Amino acid sequence: MQLEFFLLLAAALFCIGIYGLITSRNAVRVLMSIELMLNGVNLNLVGFSNFLDHTNIRGQVFSVFVITVAAAEAAVGLAIVLAIYRNRETIDMEQFNLLKW
Amino acid sequence: MNDFFSQTIWLVPLYSLSGALFTLPWSPGIIRQTGPRPAGYISTVMTVIGLVHSLLALRVTVQQPVKYLSFDWLHAANLDIAFELEVSTITVSALVLILGLNFLAKIYAIGYMEMDWGWARFYSMLALFEGGMCTLVLCNSLFFSYVVLEILTLGTYLLIGLWFNQSLVVTGARDAFLTKRVGDLILLMGVVALLPLAGTWNYTELGEWAKTANLSPGVANLLCLALIAGPLGKCAQFPLHLWLDEAMEGPMPATILRNTVVVSTGAWVLIKLQPVLALSPLALSTMIGIGSVTAIGAGLIAIAQIDIKRSLSYSVSAYMGLVFIAVGTQQDDTALRLLFTYAIAMSLLVMSIGSVVLNTITQDLTQYGGLWSRRPISGLAFLVGAAAMVACPPFGCFWILTEMADNLWHTHPTLVGVLLIVNGLTAFSLTREFSLIFGGKPKPMTVRSPEGLWALVLPMTFGMGFALHVPILLDKWNLLPGWENLNFAVATLLVISTFIGAGAAAYIYLTDKIAKPIQLKHKAVQDFFAYDLYTAQIYRVTIIFAVGLVSQIVYWFDRYLVDGVINLFGLATIFSGESLKYNVSGQTQFYFLSILLGVILFVGVICFPFLAQLSVNPVF
User: Fold this and answer.
1) Cα–Cα distance between B147 and B130 in angstroms, integer?
2) What is the pLDDT of residues A23-32, one digit of tens each?
3) Which of A33, B48, B289, B319 is most buried, by the most CB atoms less than 10 A from its CB?
């Protein structure tokens, strides 16, 4: 019964990430929320690999990749935030609604 | 050589039609230098060629049995439509009559249209009519009769509308086209319905079929009533008679033809269809009823008119009513003879008043007076025409009317009464016209009114001579009853009615005992007939109102409901596009939310069966 607890924890983490992703006004905090979600996913992957795939632990390999990609993504994300900041001098998400209808 | 002319009788309409084409180059827009006169000369020459051809053919056909020619026109599946011609004494005589009257009218028009530039249009229309009428009398097929009738309807429209810068001409041409069209269209229903029943449109074969045909009364009645409707409109019978009154806006030479032969085209088809019409007693009594009502009504209206052309046009309707009565009582030969004598008399009357109108300008009978001493030829022509039109013993129509009354004497005594009344009324109205124009004192409009040019007088005197010879011709053709066969009672009654009518009119209008203009005690009655029974108003409040209302409703329906539904789709699309674009809010987080909601929905839909199973059969 231990897997369910892992999964529930991961889901809770993921949902907290989603909540942060949608409600944060600070762009950096949005990136942080995305990290939370990715970590929730990693928790899932590790949990599955431990409980369902003892021998090959492919989930752990997956999570290594996810961590790597997440790091790159965060770097690029921060670069984008910086680029926006240079132009607009703010990182408030509410101010970035120029590309509407 | 002899046979040549009767074999090639089908060329006669083609002469006229080629004349119609050859005149067109002299339209003012094409040949700009020489003026329009050659158009008239060419057209007249083509008529003369046709006339000579048909006269030569007549000499041969009189001695020969009826011949039939046939040209294939259309083969389609089971339908073979052939253009069938009948070369008989009657058809070729009709050709001669038509071409002769056309010749007179064209010579007349050379004088009458002197001050007019529209010769090309006018003569080509006349030639089209001539060709159409020649085709009509030659063709022995109901289908092609209908085709020609329709072409002539279009021709009427164009010919009445010759001087189209006058507003009354435009409305008159419109009414003539639509009224005749309505009749023709109902005729088309009859024509189409006849083919499956009889299997042929050939008049001869229709006659054969009608002898043994066994139709249910309902079918026969409807069919025959539809077949009557076409001639009803063509012959200007009640209630489709107003067009002829308004058609008097057209030029006078065309009126000669319209009043004599064009209205007779309908009667010709009616006479040809007589064997079929005899299938339905209802149709016959309808014809008699319409003919009687028209004859008496139009006779009364003619008396109440002050416009000389219109007064004559109602006499036309009255005489066509007599033809309807004759066909309704199955005397087709009498009807044909009446058409012949009537056409000559009426052409003379119209030519006479045309020559008066041309040099006196007004058409108002109350403005005329005292022309007899200065216009003797026109006056004589009018007198001879009037005498030839009513039952005045030696002249043409007397014999035919007597023959008709004689045939009716035992079978339909009331119709003899109708005949007497119509004859008396016509005698009254013609004498009234004569007395008002030629009798009395000159009025300001008629103080100086010279006799017309030779081109007006020549055809008039020709026509007069012909009208005087009609009884001799009838005698030569053995069409006059012998003295021993003549029903003297009927003949006397007719002559008495003529003299009562003519005498009363002469007494009223030639003496000063009664104040002119004459006022009846009942002004309403006088107006009722003077405004031709208020037919225009009747049309306006019935059929025109109904059609107008329906078309407005249909227009509204089309404009707002049909268009509206389609436009609603377009509007809804625009509106949805305009409103849905606000989904693109520009907020990245809103897009994240949309993605999330989409994923949840998608997963929910995919997993729904699984989840539903979970709730029904809990695994735990």
Assistant:
1) 15
2) 999 999 999 9
3) B319
SS3 B101: helix
H or E stretch at B345 = helix B332-360
**Cα–Cα distance between B320 and B231 in angstroms, integer?**
10
The amino acid occupying position A2 is Q
- SS3 label, residue B87: strand
Q: Does A16 touch chain B (CB under 8 A)?
A: no
* Best mutation target, B578, B579, B589, to test chain A (most A CBs within 10 A): B589
Residues 6 or more apart from B609 whose CB is under 8 A from it? none
Residue B104 to residues B22, B252, B343, B459: CA-CA distances in angstroms? 20, 13, 13, 5
**Alpha-carbon span B277 to B585, nearest angstrom:** 82
- List, for residues B392-404, the tens digit of each pLDDT value: 888 989 999 998 9
Is the model's pLDDT at B254 over the cut of 80?
A: no
Indicate the pLDDT class of residue B615, thresholds 50, 70 and 90: low
Counting one residue from chain A and one from chain B, the pairs whose CB atoms sit within 8 A come to 33
Sequence-separated (6 or more) residues with CB below 8 Å from residue B355: B375, B378, B451, B452, B456, B457, B460
Classify B64 as helix, strand or coil.
coil
pTM attached to this predicted model:
0.84
pLDDT category of residue A44 using cuts at 50, 70 and 90: very high
User: SS3 sequence, B281-294?
Assistant: HHHHHHHHHHHHHH
The C-alpha atoms of residue B434 and residue B429 are separated, in whole angstroms, by: 9
Q: Give the Cα separation of B106 and B41 in Å (integer).
A: 9
Amino acid letter at B138?
Answer: L
A84 touches chain B (CB under 8 A): no
Contact B277, B228 (CB under 8 A): yes
β-pair partners for A26? A92
Q: Using an 8 Å Cβ cutoff, are B230 and B186 in contact?
A: yes
Q: CA–CA separation, B346 vs B356, rounded Å?
A: 15
Amino acid making up residue B597: L
DSSP state of B444: G
**Helix (H), strand (E), coil (C) string for B512-579:** CCCCCCCCCCCHHHHHHHHCHHHHHHHHHHHHHHHHHHHHHHHHHHHHHHHHHHHHHHHHHHHHHHHH
Rounded to an integer, what distance in angstroms lies between the CA atom of residue B334 and that of residue B363?
A: 34
* Cβ-based neighbour number of residue B167 at 10 Å: 9
Contact of B86 with B140, CB cutoff 8 Å: yes
The values of phi and psi at residue B273, to 5°, are -90, 0
| Distance of alpha carbon B539 from alpha carbon B548, whole angstroms | 12
B620 Cβ neighbours under 8 A, 6+ residues apart: none
ipTM confidence score: 0.90
Q: Name which of A23, A30, A100 is nearest B584 (Cβ-Cβ).
A: A100
Q: What is the mean pLDDT of chain B?
A: 91
How many Cα atoms sit within 13 Å of B198 on the Cβ side?
Answer: 30
Q: How many CB atoms lie within 10 A of CB A37?
A: 20
Contact: B587, A94; criterion CB under 8 Å? yes
- Helix runs in B235-331, H state only: 242-246, 252-257, 263-272, 274-277, 281-304, 308-328
Sign of CA dihedral B183, B188, B194, B200: positive
pLDDT at residue B209, as a whole number: 92
- Alpha-helical runs (H) found in B141-246: 142-160, 167-198, 203-212, 217-234, 242-246
Burial class (CB in 10 A: 0-12, 13-18, 19+), B514: exposed
Q: Which of B250, B251, B104 is nearest to B177 (CA)?
A: B250
> In the structure encoding, which two tokens stand for residue B49, read together?
């060629």
CB B265: neighbour CB atoms within 10 A?
24
